[in-house]
Amino acid sequence: MGGYLIYFAIIILVPLWAQFRVKGSYAKYSKVSSSSHMRGEEVARKILDANGLFHVGIEETRGHLTDHYDPRSKTIRLSSANYHGHSVAAAAIAAHEVGHAIQDQQDYAFLRFRHALVPVANLGSNFSWILIMIGFLAGYSGFVLLGIIFMAAAVVFQLITLPVEFNASNRAMDQVVSLGVIRNDEERETKKVLNAAALTYVAAAAVAVMELLRLILIYTGMQRND
To answer: Catalytic: which of 41, 42, 60, 97?
Structure first.
């Protein structure tokens, strides 16, 4: 019983800790103006144009930290605070999303693999627990195994997301430094914002792997009891 309590505490607290780090870093550095005083939209446009991505659009979107790159419409969408903001945080996040656009342009292998996994990952996320619960309630280990397979697809998607996000952040740092968006003394602050954001993906992947391993152990136990 104690082991289960520790396990559930970890899978709840780790994501909360990651979110706390992200919100804390963003709140801190969204109040620090960048030396270039460029708005997030201007940062994104500058990096896009410098890399020949004139066709990629930039739009303002609602919400808090809802920034993302849409590969289908070739559009970077920045939340209002980052679209209009001229802080270190706004520059870092805008540059990160442009990093994904550059990945798309260069056919970055992990990004392509992640895109290919989207339908399978969505299916796994939606149906895995239904199959697993049916298997547990009815005592059908085959349903549990099928659910685990579906869940494994979703876990692979999360693991593939890690190199995609870290690579986008590395590209972002290279761009903001080489194009003079930030000064050398601002690199540390920019990295803190990018690293904090990456923690959410690391935490999500770690929790997903732990949950998958737990279910595999339960399944093997069911097999021994059959």
So the answer is: 97
Tokens at 127, concatenated: 């149906």
State mean pLDDT over 39-52: 98
Known catalytic residue at 59: no
Distance from C-alpha of 44 to C-alpha of 38, rounded to nearest angstrom:
10
Q: Which helix (H) or strand (E) holds 191?
A: helix 187-225
> Does residue 112 have a pLDDT over 60?
yes
The CB-side HSE value for 68 (13 A sphere, CA atoms) comes to: 9
Element of type H or E holding 77: strand 75-79
Strand partners, 33: 87
Tokens representing residue 64 in the block: 């808090």
108's enclosing H/E stretch is: none
d(CA 84, CA 4): 46
